[in-house]
Amino acid sequence: MKLYYLLSAGLLIALHTNAQQTKTDTVFFEDFNEQNLDRNKWNVEVTGQTVNDEQQAYVDSTATIYMVKGKDAEGAINGALVLKAIYQPGFMSKEKKSYDFISGRINTRSKMEFPYGTASARMKMTAGAGLWPAFWALGNGKWPDCGEIDMMETIGDSTWVSHALHGPNYFGNTPLAYRAHFASGTDVTQWHVYSVDWSPTSLIFKVDGKVTYTVTKPMVEKYGRWAFDNKKFIILNFALGGGYPGGYNKISKPYYGISESTVNKIKAGEAKVFVDWVLVTKGKE
Known about the structure:
Blueprint: E1 3-4, H1 9-20, E2 26-30, E3 43-44, E4 56-58, E5 65-68, E6 80-84, E7 86-92, E8 98-103, E9 105-107, E10 113-114, E11 117-125, E12 131-139, E13 148-153, E14 160-166, E15 177-182, E16 192-198, E17 202-207, E18 210-216, H2 217-221, E19 232-240, H3 243-249, H4 260-267, E20 272-281
Parallel strand pairs: 1-15, 4-8
Antiparallel strand pairs: 2-20, 3-9, 5-6, 6-20, 7-8, 9-19, 10-19, 11-16, 11-20, 12-13, 12-19, 13-14, 14-15, 16-17, 17-18
Keywords: Signal
InterPro entries: Beta-glucanase-like (IPR000757), ConA-like_dom_sf (IPR013320), Glycosyl_Hydrlase_16 (IPR050546)
Protein name: Beta-glucanase (GH16 family)
């Protein structure tokens, strides 16, 4: 794998500054600078029938979804969103399914949906086997026909993040995926800007402004229909364990895909995802 190096501190500051400016091409901007989550922009998902053998239930709670400022924001200039995983054994979902973990997931469905453009987020997160945060975009309708763009996923190995596309005949363990490795001394626990440039003919993934993976329409059509001409909404979530982490780390106990040391981090209140801002700008239709 190639190593993709960080931009200079000055360029990262410029990325952050640009994201805070309202431009004529801005479709959506959220800097999480309010006291509470803006429900005019975001939906909070509540689930109790998880997919991928994940080990968490998503709840609508300020224990799992909340804002921080100042020192608590850990480097976010105007405050940050926190998605936090919590150990709560015996939690019962409305579907009467029992979970030992709760977490948070939000989306912009019906509130902000866009076809083409650049979607970016500045994020940092706790590392640990089985911690599975993601920044992604999804179309409406039946999955995978609706198309899914995974701008950033990490499953606990702090040295890399993955990008992926899912659609008809290329989903699950999709062939359209790539691991972008960080340089030595750099990892997911530090702030990075994750983005995708989405056009009618390609998707170009970047970390800190540097291209890490490019997928073209002909590449996709080797496997199935191009599912990236419809509007999609943004999702930020913090999953725990399940098929993707478990398939990589081969851990089955104490939970599928989650190590004992990670469980201890969750119990200690240390499993968090910080999101400084999310920006979507216009693309060519």
